[in-house]
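pasting for ref
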Amino acid sequence: MTVTHIVAIAALIKNAEKTKVLVLKRQKNEKFFAGKWHFPGGKVERGESFLEALKREVKEEAGLEIYDEIRHIRDFHFIRKDGNHVVGITFEVTAKPGRIILNQDNDEYRWISPEEIHNLDYIHGIEKDIEIGFK
């Protein structure tokens, strides 16, 4: 088996009042992290900048446009079930006003306060992003 290194990004999106964060719930039939809550994000495609990848992933997964300003929250890494190594970065972004429209990979969304993350079955690590993002 060939091991691939994947570069991923995640978008921590706060509401207008900066008191809540957007999380999405992955479909139960997803290959990785099925049924888990997460931030919009995914793989950075060949030739994309982080900002371009963030804009594309947030639009694809949540139907929202984001502004060009991004703030680095933290880096992360893990080994997927298939043995591939994922290196990622979480950025705080600001969404332009709009309606959330989920894609086929996600079946629910919520705006949650930082402490509410612990009531959800989430992808390990996003609780750290939330803690840093709300300092």
